[in-house]
């Protein structure tokens, strides 16, 4: 999703001192955006099977959807980490007012427009009333995916001040800061399992993701060598395995897909943090290798990836409307057929969403919303 700017400059800085402001290498970001966007579409296509709406707990269809979903849930944390990695580098020539003016065009307008669009769509599709619409907007969840806009908007509000922290804090201190904020967010989600405890609003949606935002800067400016690739692979494998087995154990113990299983899918459950960090490191390694490959074929792939990356933010915004419209028209079978239906809906949603966004980006006024 192109809701941030890509700085240019030399290789990542690995110094352990304050004022570490060198621009990190970012020529891998386009591939990571495209992969994360594809993961988002697949997660939303398979989630009704995982929650047992269209598949029985423990069936082959459920296991297939559960493994795919577990292996792709890193998508939103990776988007947040990429934004932090790109935006937290201190910039002497950009004060808070300048930063906010730039960000409003990129996130403020889409937030307002798509909040209204999805609330109107839910009114037309499901009869959402005025009170329900107000509650959804106040909670920062006018649709199942638009919370991300509220998360990013909140993080942007703090970015000019976080840049000062980054400029004058050692890397060791920043690792502690990121770890503590991730830990607080994880504890908040854990306590929310207790009935009647927790809950967020449009103004606080971003707080649990602050640790990921800081972590993005630290990871993006770390050594991208072979050791990072090995660590990424180990963390991703361990994290996904933890999600798969942990959610299954919780669901089996409860006899249904419930709160305990959902917690394993939360963005700040321990295995999800591991999987997300691992995915970030793996995507960076893959993207850097792709960028280093020469020849016409690699150049052509790079151009396609660049185009898709430019469409990814818009695809994120429209894909839920496209996916649910396709489901409304085609229906969703139960059992084993539901798995193949989800595959088809994911592919169709991606193609239709890309086409819709490509057209919208060519239309004055509409292009500022995607």
Automatic annotation (TrEMBL):
- Give residue ranges for domain Acyltransferase: 27-355
The answer to whether the entry has keyword ATP-binding is no
Instruction: Kindly list the GO molecular function terms attached to this UniProt entry.
Output: acyltransferase activity
Q: Does the keyword Cell membrane apply?
A: yes
Q: Which UniProt keywords apply?
A: Acyltransferase, Cell membrane, Membrane, Transferase, Transmembrane, Transmembrane helix
Location (main, coarse): membrane
Q: Name one Pfam family in it.
A: Acyl_transf_3
Regions that span the bilayer? 104-124, 144-162, 174-194, 200-219, 231-251, 263-283, 304-326, 338-360
| InterPro entries the UniProt entry points to | Acyl_transf_3_dom (IPR002656)
Question: Which cellular compartments is it found in?
Answer: Cell membrane
What membrane topology does the annotation report for this chain?
Multi-pass membrane protein
Q: Quick one: where's region Disordered?
A: 1-21
**What family does this belong to?**
Belongs to the acyltransferase 3 family.
Name this protein carries in UniProt:
Acyltransferase family protein
